[in-house]
Amino acid sequence: MEFSQSFAAINRAEHRLKEFDCGKPGMNQFIQQFACKHSKLGLSRTMVLPVANLEGDKRLIAACFTLAIATVQGKSLPVKKSLPKYPTPVALLARLAVDLKYQNKRLGEKSLISALRHAARLCDEGLPAYGLILDVLDKDALSFYQRYDIFHQLSDDPMRLFAPMSVLRKI
Ligand SMILES: CC(C)(COP(=O)(O)OP(=O)(O)OC[C@H]1O[C@@H](n2cnc3c(N)ncnc32)[C@H](O)[C@@H]1OP(=O)(O)O)[C@@H](O)C(=O)NCCC(=O)NCCS
Predict the structure, then answer these.
(1) Ligand 1: which atom is nearest the Cα of residue 135?
(2) pTM of the model as a whole
(3) pLDDT at 54 > cutoff 70
(4) Taking the domain 8-168, which CATH number applies?
């Protein structure tokens, strides 16, 4: 099975949204029903890795990630610097998933790296973010992210992870 080399913005006309199944119903529902709508509204942006398709039909989605903007209280971040009292802007990795058919082929890792690079690029192009946070779906997902030692748990929520932008820029 051939995958595209790069991620593209999700698009109902080009991607087979209804067939995406990563095994987590809430995640599937977001991709199938809300990802395009939220991209148009400017609430989040979902990028997908399509499966190559020689016949020119709509393409299956092998993997995807969703980025958005959020703010956190500086004092909850695992950093030594003292930050202003007002909310700290961060990139939010809102979703990351691989279709069950394509799991265990390193697409989760590829998607994570692409998402982190995408966030760093946006920051360098003028949308400032102190780092990236993500909300871990469950214990299974936590053990996936804990493999990558760039993430640190937030002091007030162990299921919320943070990576500083200075680290993302090196990925
Ligand atoms: C978590 C998920 C993205 C992993 O995707 P994947 O394509 O199967 O993972 P990869 O093949 O890239 O795995 C890379 C490495 O992580 C390991 N890994 C994969 N899932 C793991 C998990 N849940 N816990 C610990 N390690 C995991 C793999 O064994 C592999 O290790 P290796 O380097 O020793 O070979 C995928 O299982 C998924 O979409 N799950 C449902 C949605 C979800 O939970 N998303 C996280 C949202 S917070």
Answers:
(1) 48
(2) 0.95
(3) no
(4) 3.40.630.30
